[in-house]
Amino acid sequence: RGSDGQYNMHTLKYCQDVACPDVTAKAGGPYTEECNGQPTSFELNGSRSCDPYGDPLTYSWSTNCPSAYFDGPSSARTYITMDGPPPCPTTCNATLAVSSINGSDSDTAAITVQDTLNPWLVGVPVNTAVECDSVPMPANVTAQDQCDPDVPAFFNETFSNCACDGQYTITRRW
């Protein structure tokens, strides 16, 4: 009762999001990324996480990925960086924990870092014709790869005789 003797009525309205009946973490994913060298970085998105009453959420990302860290581990969206030579493919997880005054939840997303790009050769000479007494030594050819710093380049050399005297073909393959 108020001071005037009348009853005062107060209505409290609570709106609950039916699509989000509880505090819910949504880590997104699964994430499949191409190895892009060292380091390999890509975005994780937990922005679909929700609170049933629209209250603010706090975010906390964690991972079991090798040599990995986050640029914003307490943000809904963050970049994960794997800062080491990951064996490819690498499969690991990122876990997002969210909380609000209404509760907490966590969700885990699978991460796969793959290497689908072939290595390439550096220093391969162009095809050339030379005199028999001036055949160059084999070139120093190396192999490179985005994800593997130790790719070997293998060398094979074959000789084949031609129909003409004193002529032959050398085929060099790396």
Tally of helical runs: 0
Strand composition percent: 35-45%
The strand line-up of the biggest sheet is 1-7-6-3
The end-to-end span amounts to: 94 Å
Spatial shape: rod-shaped
Average per-residue pLDDT, rounded, comes to: 85
Radius of gyration based on Cα positions: 31 Å
Class of secondary structure makeup: mainly beta
**Total number of strands:** 11
Helix share bin: under 10%
H/E element sequence: EEEEEEEEEEE
How many strands, which pairing sense, and closed or not: the largest β-sheet?
A: 4 strands, mixed
Which residues sit in consecutive blocks of at least 5 with pLDDT less than 50?
Answer: none
List keywords for this structure.
mainly beta; 3-stranded antiparallel β-sheet; 11 strands; rod-shaped
Structure commentary:
This protein is mostly beta strands. It is built from no helices and eleven strands. The protein has strands spanning 31-34, 40-45, 58-63, 68-70, 77-82, 90-100, 103-114, 120-122, 142-144, 156-161, 168-173. Strands 1-7-6-3 form a four-stranded mixed sheet, with no helix packed on it. A three-stranded antiparallel sheet has the order 2-5-4, with no helix packed on it.
SSE inventory with pairings:
Blueprint: E1 31-34, E2 40-45, E3 58-63, E4 68-70, E5 77-82, E6 90-100, E7 103-114, E8 120-122, E9 142-144, E10 156-161, E11 168-173
Parallel strand pairs: 1-7
Antiparallel strand pairs: 2-5, 3-6, 4-5, 6-7, 8-9, 10-11
Please outline what is shown here.
With 174 residues, the protein is mainly beta. Helix content is 0%, strand content 38%.
